[in-house]
Amino acid sequence: MESRGAPEPADVLADVAQRLGASLDLTQTLDEVARAVVERLGFGVAALNLVTDEGDLEVAAIAGPQEIRAELLGRRQSAADWTDLLAASEPRGRLRFLDGRKGGEDPSHLYFFVPDIPVSDDVLAWHPLDALFAPLYGGDGALLGVLSVDLPHDGLRPDSGDRDLLEVFAIQAALAIDHARLYADLQRSMDDQKRIQAELRHRALHDALTGLANRELLLDRLDQALARSRRDGWGIAVVFLDVDHFKLVNDSLGHGVGDELLITLARLLTHHLREVDTAGRLGGDEFVLVLEELSGPAEAIAVAERLMEAVKAPLLVGGEQVRISLSVGLAMATTTSTSSELLAEADAAMYRAKATGRARWEVFDSEMRSEALAQLDLRRELSSAVAAEQFRLHYQPIVDLVTGQPLGFEALLRWEHPTRGLLAPAAFLDVLEDSDTDSPVAEWVLERACSDAATWLGGLFVTVNVSPRQLARPELARRVADVLARTGLPAERLWVEITENRPVDAHQDIADVQRLRDLGVHVALDDFGTGYAGLTYLQRLPADTVKIDRVFVQGVVGDRVSRGIVSAVVGLATALDLQVVAEGVETVDQAHALAELGVSLAQGYLWAKPAPLPGSGLPVTRRLSVLSEDLAGELRRLVASLAMSSDRGQVARLAVQTARRSLGADAGLLLLLTEHGSAVLAHGEGYSARLLKEFEEVPVESLWPICATLRDGTPVFHQQAQLRVDAHTQVRTAADKITGLACVPAAADGVLLGALGMTWTGPVEFADALRGHLLSIGELVGQRLAQLLY
Ligand code: C2E
Ligand code: CA
Ligand code: CA
Fold first, then answer.
1. Shortest-distance Cα residue to atom 41 of ligand 1
2. What is the pTM of this model?
3. From ligand 1's centre to the CA of 298, what distance in Å?
4. 41-75 burial string, b = 16+ CB within 10 Å, else e?
5. How far is it, in rounded angstroms, from Cα 165 to Cα 10?
6. Among the listed residues 137, 117, 166, 125, the one whose alpha carbon sits nearest the alpha carbon of residue 5
7. What is the Cα gyration radius of the chain?
8. Which range scores top for mean pLDDT: 181-190, 400-409, 432-441?
9. Which residue has the CA at smallest separation from atom 13 of ligand 1?
10. CA 414/CA 428 separation, integer angstroms
């Protein structure tokens, strides 16, 4: 989506700001505003209507063809007529658009410019009766005038990019007009040189948007405050405030609303401060307070809390209710503090507040100081870690939620630190992404994950996490293509996970993501729901999959909001033809709830924790089926098949295969008791030949601890059948990788017939549903065996 006139919006605005700022003369400023619309914003005509002292609106400047200027300049209309005109038009953000095709309420008694252009059938084309208005508000919120534009150079109605540009332009223009008027007033009413200089000086030391102190003034005030406090002993605090997710406000509601929000916030800050305190804005959404004459840190914290509380109520900005929160960092001055040190410390504390959840405050302390030093160490160590081959990838399966089958694996970075052991990304990712080592590590991850996938993962896919910074690198797509070619991994088996936990430029993202998708790579939007990406972002971003964040997954049982969010994401994803992966599933109940809500893929400790790829094959996952209907169906099928099995070998095979498949065990066996008190292997699969040999004949005592509870020396199987996870020592040493062996009785009428054993490698916790399922299989098999035996 390009704006009219092609150059980057930022360039246009910078240029316009320079031009508007260059003049303090009102007439000149007005002309400059109108000219900028025609020269830089791509319209043929711009009329600037100013509110006069009498309350009418008068055309004060015109840019466009000479005849139009002659016709319009100086024309007046009453404020009431303007109100009608604006009412007949529709809001477009903070602009109003008069839709010439709609007709609607007849504005013909009102005057506005109607160019002599043909009416086109194309609904996107500009209609002669179309008009676009930008109301101009002064710094005090009063209406200064209305800028109306017409005759777009491209003949099209404005798109959202054009409108954003005009919105921001209108704010700049209003400020410039305000300034020029102020200057004119000053000139008129005051002694002609000192006051102007004071005003100019004020401007040089204050932030133009909010009127707060700028960095220079703030540091100056802080220096003075420090000097005073050394004399009088009062405490000083520097408070760093940052609006959480400010970018989201800007992106979703437009820069105009963003600017207004900052102005509102500045007022609110000033309102809450004492006479001795100073409020400043460093730029963007970063505000700094210098608090003086404090008795201690508690007083500064109280101020921070008051401010955080004050912004909790929704702020009315640009006609929209906006809810924001602040992350706040505080630094208390010591006798040796310098102003820039204090500022940096408060900044660091603010970052801590952001990193630990936002909407909170942190005080800079000695711990942070040592942490800052530790970060420096980390940065140094990281820079040699790739060459020293200290990075590892762990893999966590992404499974089909219904069958429990792994479909792919997420590659998760680990750092084998020489002294601190294996580190998870949380310990180093921030430092890494902020350093030059970021790229080499990302390259390594990509290369390693693709080659692992090509070698080990059969037909399954591998997912790689890409940081926003990596995503923004134009050469990413080319590098991915290289790696795919080199490793032989088909593009569709690579997923790239983009996290939305940092502000990203939506337009830029779309281009970056599209380049990857053009290669055939699958794109997943990670941590969905926690970060900047709203549902609208999802609609715009060309992704294939969304990964619902763990927070909502873990709340899906019990928390209505989480459930609602999951269900909304599933609904939208279905509409947009996207897959949904639920992350961080830890319990069977969560899995059930997710399946009910229509989630199809999942990932989490329930199936497997991330683990290194063993040299010989897949990381093991617990392939469990979580749907009870499925289990019931499985049992019905088993009954039917058992009825058709006429010998013990067939029954044994069926028992083991059914149990393995439906429980996702890696291996399974059925042992049958012999008359002389031992057990023999009736069927076994998935175990090594060596282990199966050991099971050919097993003294029955060695089975008891595994599969039975002993009462008076007698195994009690049927009544108190238990699934024992802890394997008998003998069995455990015999197996290569058994971490869980479970047995159930195959018995009828209380007579013990044998034991059905399943083995899972990897962590196994048994949910009641699974325990019950295994017992049911055992019983059905036992019944059939009994029928065959007697
Ligand atoms: P992520 O992409 O959201 O990855 C999932 C994280 O959740 C992993 O943490 C995983 O171990 C953890 N997890 C998985 N299942 C469960 C569960 O059932 N319960 C709980 N409590 N946690 C679960 P990990 O490995 O510590 O990674 C943390 C984050 O670091 C990742 O979050 C990802 O954003 C980032 N990361 C990991 N590897 C890379 C990488 O190679 N490059 C980049 N840029 N970021 C990476
Ligand atoms: Ca991820
Ligand atoms: Ca995630």
1. 413
2. 0.48
3. 37
4. bbbbbbbbbbbeeeebbbbbbbbbeeebbeebeee
5. 9
6. 166
7. 35
8. 432-441
9. 584
10. 9
